[in-house]
Amino acid sequence: MKLHFYKYHGNGNDFILIDNRDEVIKNLPKQVVEKLCHRRFGIGADGLILMNRSKEYDFEMQYYNSDGRESTMCGNGGRCMVQFAGDLGIIKNKTSFLAIDGPHDGIIGSDKSISIKMIDVKTFEKKDSDYVINTGSPHYVKFVGDVDAINVSSEGKAMRNQSDFIKEGINVNFVEEGSDKLKVRTYERGVEDETLSCGTGVVASALISSVKQEKSEGRQTVNLTTPGGTFEISFVKKNEGFSDIWLKGGVEFVFEGEVDLKKFGLK
Fold first, then answer.
1. 20 within a domain of the structure (yes/no)
2. Would residue 37 show up in a list of annotated catalytic residues for this protein?
3. What is the DSSP letter of 28?
4. How far apart are CA 165 and CA 188, in angstroms?
């Protein structure tokens, strides 16, 4: 079975995208996704996303981590899907799509940036000087003095495999606060390594930084840098909750091609 695919990245967070609106793919076994995402024996990506048909929305995104498991919301993956939908001619500059955590709005900006609206966040947990928050995916947020000095792979793995998190896994964000922006590096579960950026992770970092700095209620905008690029996060803070959260950053088409899925174990 030959399948056409597309490769996109959102600030270095890269994905295999497949237009599955004709429902050619009924299911993707874990080992097939894992092989396709492998950077030596496959196409290579942090994850794979199916664009499925939706009755009520422009499309539905179905996201798999590079370990082959279907996972929770992927912010950069969602942004890539908005650009993908635009490139396919499904939308113009605005969309509403469905993901595993519910509906999302998306905008293709005149500056070629891609923004998506994230789910509201009502709660978070403080663990000593660190925080745990769910922004569509679970995140552990740790503030550090020099993020560039952190061994994200080893330190992130140790936190991700703590007894509290080992069953479901958790993404780990290391955050350095600057005078006008945050620097963030992320260890992602499912990839089990550092990625160049993480959409739900920069959102988590921005929200928790607002908490830590005891910012006043109302509309806020936070600028962040990751190894893969820059982001702008805007949100409304009220009491201990957050609403109208937008994730904005760059997206790029990389290449497209065709793969024989029989070679990867799909009959």
1. yes
2. no
3. -
4. 13
The answer to whether residue 190 is domain-embedded is yes
Q: Is 80 a catalytic residue?
A: no
From the candidates 17, 74, 121, 222, give the one annotated as an active-site residue: 74
**How many angstroms separate the CA atoms of 117 and 29, rounded?**
30
Query: Cα angle vertex 61, ends 57, 66, to 5°?
Result: 175
Query: Mean pLDDT for each 10-residue chunk of the chain (267 residues)?
Result: 94 98 92 96 97 97 97 98 98 98 98 97 95 98 98 97 92 95 97 98 98 94 98 93 98 97 80
Tell me how far apart the alpha carbons of residues 245 and 236 are, in angstroms, rounded to a whole number: 7
Q: Which alpha helices (DSSP H) does 94-220 contain, by range? A: 152-160, 199-212
129 and 26, same domain (yes or no): no
- Calpha distance 183→209 (Å, rounded): 11
Q: Which residues of 208-223 are buried (b: 16+ CB within 10 A; e: fewer)?
A: bbbbeeeeeeeebebe
Q: Where do we find the tokens 């998506």?
A: 116
Overall number of domains in the chain:
2
Same-domain status, 54 and 145: no
Q: Long-range contacts made by residues 111-114, C-beta under 8 angstroms, separation at least 24?
A: 112/250, 113/248, 113/249, 113/250, 113/251, 114/10, 114/79, 114/80, 114/82, 114/83, 114/248, 114/249, 114/250, 114/251
Residue bearing tokens 């993480």: 198
* Catalytic residue (choose from 198, 204, 222, 233): 198
Strand duo 171-177 + 138-143: pairing? parallel
Q: In whole angstroms, what is the distance from residue 229 CA to residue 264 CA?
A: 32
Structure tokens at 96: 């509403």
User: Is the same domain home to 74 and 130?
Assistant: no
